[in-house]
């Protein structure tokens, strides 16, 4: 699994102009299972994606089509979940 940390590099006004397109980009990837979850940070300095395991090159290609590419920096971290709390066992090995 990957954690993708988005850090906004532009003003929130510029980010918000792309928010609708970004959400439309997210929906099919969430529906397909490639993305597990997505959300904005609080305070609003960026966002986080949880992404199903895939070749890194495939993830980079997927992210390259996100409208937020013009307003955010992406940090990709590979995580191998070994332990999970009750109700989150399905995170192991994804």
Radius of gyration computed on alpha carbons = 14 Å
Q: What gross morphology would you assign?
A: globular
CATH architecture: 2-Layer Sandwich
User: Which class best fits the helix and strand makeup?
Assistant: alpha+beta
CATH superfamily: Dimeric alpha+beta barrel
What about the largest sheet? 4 strands, antiparallel
Averaged pLDDT: 95
Which consecutive residue ranges, at least 5 long each, have pLDDT under 50? none
Task: Please give the order of strands in the largest beta sheet.
Answer: 2-3-1-4
Task: Work out the helix count.
Answer: 2
Briefly, what CATH class? Answer: Alpha Beta
Distance between the termini: 5 Å
> In what range is the share of β-strand residues?
25-35%
What is the number of E strands? 4
Order of helices and strands: EHEEHE
Determine the fraction of residues in helical runs and give it as a percent range: 25-40%
Number of domains: 1
CATH fold description: Alpha-Beta Plaits
Throw out a few tags for this protein.
94 residues, 31% helix, alpha+beta, Alpha-Beta Plaits, four-stranded antiparallel sheet
Report on the architecture of this protein:
With 94 residues, this protein is of the alpha+beta class. The chain has a single domain (2-81), classed as 2-Layer Sandwich (Alpha-Beta Plaits), CATH 3.30.70. It is built from two helices and four strands; from the N terminus they run βαββαβ. The protein has helices spanning 12-32, 56-63, and strands at 2-8, 35-40, 46-51, 72-78. The chain has a four-stranded antiparallel β-sheet with strand order 2-3-1-4, covered by helices on one side. The longest helix has 21 residues, at 12-32. The termini are close together. The relative contact order is 0.28. The mean pLDDT is 95.
């Amino acid at each position: 699994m990957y954690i993708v940390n988005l850090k906004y590099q532009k003003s929130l006004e510029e980010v918000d102009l792309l928010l609708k397109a970004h959400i439309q980009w997210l929906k099919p990837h969430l529906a397909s299972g490639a993305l597990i979850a997505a959300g904005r940070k609080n305070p609003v300095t960026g966002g986080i994606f949880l992404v199903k395991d895939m070749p890194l090159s495939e993830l980079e290609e997927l992210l390259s089509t996100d409208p937020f590419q013009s307003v955010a920096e992406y940090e990709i971290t590979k995580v191998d979940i070994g332990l999970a709390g009750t109700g989150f066992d399905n995170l192991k090995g994804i």
